[in-house]
Amino acid sequence: MIGIVGAGAFGRALAVALAARGVTLWARDPGSERLPGVALPEGVRLTGDLDDLKGAEALLLALPMQALSGFLAEHPLQGRLVACCKGIDLATLKGPSAVIGEGAFVLTGPSFAADIAAGLPTALTLAGPDDGGLQALLSTPTLRLYRTTDVVGAELGGALKNVVAIAAGVVIGAGLGESARAALITRGFAEMQRLAGALGARPETLMGLSGLGDLVLTCNSTGSRNLRFGLALGRGEAFDASVTVEGAATAEAVARLSARMGVEMPISTMVARLIAHDLSLPEAIRLLMTRPLKEE
């Protein structure tokens, strides 16, 4: 049996995809519906009792990044724990694996919940201790997992691409054009590699599914909440406050972390300042475009 903690859109999608393995899906509110039109199949047991997850072969934590630390402090969990969230904790400036603790796994990569639930082909990265058994357990005919031991690189790719996706949305929302978006994505990817490298990630990890792959998806599809948030920001429109946008908190965390480490992250810093209403969009554009000229 596989246990999934969190019945939001991604948690429910994973439950649907893994139903043949036998899934117990925990929800704080079992009656809530975060993936409209997708029914839970046989093989998925919905529960509001965490005790029902005891004995699971793996526990997938499909919780928002900013809620993960508090949840684990209130509900210590045992077993093979797999983080399915993307971001950096604002309180500690740590990724999900460090929040969970030693031996944690991270499941990340280019994926929309609706695609996974519909059984569309999806490839993800499973980062953690060398555990082919877990890779096999979580792979299905439509969900293909690639394994890496570079946890830092995998989780940073998933976190930082959300910030770049917000910036890409701002560019399009403000009417700056596709050429500007292409440049923004490219330079944003350079920032991702810079910070990840400074934190010990392997360069090839950022070139894989959890970095470049996820960046391509989130910066180019309105299925991405981060892109849609950026579009609203660029247009000067309000955004639905009930929708979790992981990149918004991550932008603030990245700005603080990069400043502390002395790593140059101009795009991420501008995103954080825009969200905080610390500067206007025209001023952000001016600051980025008048930075000292340099080699690529």
TrEMBL record:
It catalyses: sn-glycerol 3-phosphate + NADP(+) = dihydroxyacetone phosphate + NADPH + H(+); sn-glycerol 3-phosphate + NAD(+) = dihydroxyacetone phosphate + NADH + H(+). Residues 150-285 form the Glycerol-3-phosphate dehydrogenase NAD-dependent C-terminal domain. NADPH binds at F10, R28, K86, A113, R225, E246. Its EC number is 1.1.1.94. The active site is at K161. Substrate binds at K86, R225, N226. GO terms for cellular component: cytosol. Keywords: Cytoplasm, Lipid biosynthesis, Lipid metabolism, NAD, NADP, Nucleotide-binding, Oxidoreductase, Phospholipid biosynthesis, Phospholipid metabolism. Belongs to the NAD-dependent glycerol-3-phosphate dehydrogenase family. This is Glycerol-3-phosphate dehydrogenase [NAD(P)+]. The lineage of its organism: Bacteria, Pseudomonadati, Pseudomonadota, Alphaproteobacteria, Rhodobacterales.
